[in-house]
Amino acid sequence: AQSVTQPDIHITVSEGASLELRCNYSYGATPYLFWYVQSPGQGLQLLLKYFSGDTLVQGIKGFEAEFKRSQSSFNLRKPSVHWSDAAEYFCAVVGPINTGTASKLTFGTGTRLQVTL
Amino acid sequence: DTAVSQTPKYLVTQMGNDKSIKCEQNLGHDTMYWYKQDSKKFLKIMFSYNNKELIINETVPNRFSPKSPDKAHLNLHINSLELGDSAVYFCASSQDRGGNTIYFGEGSWLTVV
């Protein structure tokens, strides 16, 4: 069964600083990976996804993530954080893929991002 | 147009009551889901339907009963509500059951008092 680990529960960065949120996954084959963001009191918005191909994927709101198979990681990055980026960020993996068995999305425990002015 | 919409967004009810949350998607997807987010923000799948057929049923009390009248709708009915049912319930959909992007609704905040 697949699993996701987000080792950082809470991160604080200054506005304008760079950001990296860590995500490690466990899955037996090539994973389909996602980052979602949840603003306070809001739903889950898809930031970006990786299915195959280029290991550096671009998302919305200036976010990007890099898939590293050797490290089983899919870290989320942003070069310059804005105060509006304060939210909860979830990494997720979907599986099993195309096996005839129903797929489901498995989430990490989330990282809460706080942005100081 | 909202792709995945669920109602109500907020629901406060007393223990022992029965309540329903409705969900509709206009994306033409075949597969729909219910996820639960607990007080620690942990998200876990509850159910999944593919073309009105139940395909995922995680370990959920049988007080929770999903119903899919057609592939665009997936409702969640909860009987005899308990304090521990307080959570955010997210409806979601994907193109099919084989591993695709899953799109979420805005969530329904359920508080049981």
SSE inventory with pairings:
The complex is a heterodimer of chains A (117) and B (113).
Chain A: E1 3-5, E2 10-14, E3 19-21, E4 24-26, E5 32-38, E6 44-50, E7 56-58, E8 64-68, E9 73-78, E10 87-95, E11 104-107, E12 111-116
Parallel strand pairs in A: 2-12
Antiparallel strand pairs in A: 1-4, 3-9, 5-6, 5-10, 7-8, 8-9, 10-11, 10-12
Chain B: E1 4-7, E2 10-13, E3 19-25, E4 31-37, E5 43-50, E6 53-57, E7 64-70, E8 73-78, E9 87-94, E10 103-104, E11 108-112
Parallel strand pairs in B: 2-11
Antiparallel strand pairs in B: 1-3, 3-8, 4-5, 4-9, 5-6, 7-8, 9-10, 9-11
H/E series of chain B: EEEEEEEEEEE
Low-confidence stretches of chain B: none
- Helical region count of chain A? 0
Extended strand count of chain A = 12
Kindly state the mean pLDDT of chain A as a whole number? 93
Number of strands of chain B: 11
Distance between the termini of chain A: 41 Å
Q: Describe the largest sheet of chain A.
A: 6 strands, mixed
The biggest beta sheet of chain B is recorded as:
7 strands, mixed
